[in-house]
């Protein structure tokens, strides 16, 4: 059984993330979406909120499981008994960083391979940071994230404006 991990912050999950999740889920028997809780960052959503959002938007994908994690990806992969890490690439700048991370991970855990998926052209410009910036200025983000996510972002932004 081939088990893969698609790790990320997902703050918030975008249509670009969902594209990679859907495509990845067809390549493996089980796909674990690993939600990184990075204590060095100040995310818009807590890890628990991000897990709930991802569970909602992937509920129709039977082989997808959403799991929060902290620390090293290779340790998480070992814990989940996953031999494959899936990373999405939007541009050459992503590749440089992701290649370095993949090589480091492989050095630390030779049994974990990394596979890169290029993002769909429809989402190659899209990032969570862009979504948050547009939302912060009251822009329409409905073309970037699922409706439930857009509603939650709007709710967070309204609280920040008060």
Q: Which helices and strands occur, and which strands form pairs?
A:
Elements: E1 3-8, H1 15-25, E2 30-36, H2 47-57, E3 64-69, H3 73-80, E4 84-89, H4 92-108, E5 113-118, H5 128-136, H6 147-161
Parallel strand pairs: 1-2, 1-4, 2-3, 4-5
Q: What this model shows, in words?
A:
This protein is α/β, with parallel strands linked by helices and 162 residues long. It has a single domain, classed as HUPs (Rossmann fold, 3-Layer(aba) Sandwich), CATH 3.40.50. The chain is built from six helices and five strands, in the order E-H-E-H-E-H-E-H-E-H-H. It has helices spanning 15-25, 47-57, 73-80, 92-108, 128-136, 147-161, and strands at residues 3-8, 30-36, 64-69, 84-89, 113-118. The longest helix has 17 residues, at 92-108. Reversibly transfers an adenylyl group from ATP to 4'-phosphopantetheine, yielding dephospho-CoA (dPCoA) and pyrophosphate. Its cofactor is Mg(2+). Keywords: ATP-binding, Coenzyme A biosynthesis, Cytoplasm, Magnesium, Nucleotide-binding, Nucleotidyltransferase, Transferase.
Integer-rounded radius of gyration: 16 Å
| Count of alpha and pi helical runs | 6
Multimeric organization: single chain
CATH superfamily: HUPs
Biggest sheet descriptor: 5 strands, parallel
Q: Helix and strand succession? A: EHEHEHEHEHH
What sort of overall outline do the alpha carbons produce when their principal axes are compared?
globular
Query: Proportion of β residues?
Result: 15-25%
EC number: 2.7.7.3
Catalytic activity: (R)-4'-phosphopantetheine + ATP + H(+) = 3'-dephospho-CoA + diphosphate
Organism: Clostridium scindens (strain JCM 10418 / VPI 12708)
Site (Transition state stabilizer): 17
